[in-house]
Specification:
- There is one protein chain.
- The protein is α/β, with parallel strands linked by helices.
- The chain is 47% helix and 15% strand.
- It contains 13 helices and 11 strands.
- The strands form 4 sheets. A 5-stranded parallel β-sheet has the order 2-5-8-1-9. Strands 3-4 form a two-stranded antiparallel ribbon. A two-stranded antiparallel ribbon has the order 6-7.
- The protein starts with a helix and ends in a 5-residue tail after the last helix.
- 40% of the residues are buried.
Length: 317
Amino acid sequence: MAERAVAPVSSGQISTIVENLGRVVHAPDETLRLIVLCLVAEGHAIIEDFPGVGKTMLAKALARSLDCHFSRLQFTPDLLPSDVTGVNVFNQRQNEFEFRPGPVFANLLLVDEVNRASPKTQAALLECMEERQVSVDGVTYPLEPPFMVMATQNPIEYEGTYPLPEAQLDRFTMRLSLGYPPLAEEARMLDEQTSAPPLESLLPVADAADVLRLVEAARCVYVEESLGRYVVALLRQTRGDPRLYLGASPRAGIALLRVAKARALAEGRDYVAPDDVKAVAAPVLAHRLILAPEARSAALSAEELVADALARTPVPV
């Protein structure tokens, strides 16, 4: 079958991109792999971690690895929605308005410190992320695929920030964190960044056309009916958990299945296995859950409740 012939080649491409990211970003291989899977799953990622661990570097390295059109937005409190989407400007020579595209017109958009901007500006991203289009003055402009938003935010500094509403968090396919590197890796990173920063010499290993082929191959990955029911059962497990004020939505299930398909592709398979769902459940579901006060007082995390839901949900055989 056609899908079976494509999968091994595509899995090699995903591994190549991950290896290229590892030349610059000193983070766990699984984290680097997840960001690539998010791209192949046509999703968006929010990278939440302490300052200085390489969140922006990861986005830049991915853009260079793919040789795609890259754009960066530094969110600040005074940023306007038109600074994101673009604006109509009157052309005196032609005596008409013309549209000047904003930074969102890119294949990879880095939104640094997304929680620094006002809710109105944050909302300007919603249509772009969900509909992959921009509407300005009644005219709709499509965004060229592939399109991925990578947003960063600092989880420890809240003064002067606007926390993302649940509706916008739900637009992000997954939430990732890099963490601090091991001692030896951190020492090597210090040496690299103070002598010859590897990002400057990083070469692309794929292009936009390769990404689109990976996206199409992931779409063709087969999902058995019982596995689809397994995902639904997992979602319902979170909704019935009294420790959660809000469980996972159907949109969360769609995102989970898309990322599981991308993981199956990366493993060289043309079908999704239960392990694919389990491996990506925490980064896809945790940030969409709202903990009940009892869970917060017990110091439980959303990731722990996702793991508990996985343990309670029967796996199809």
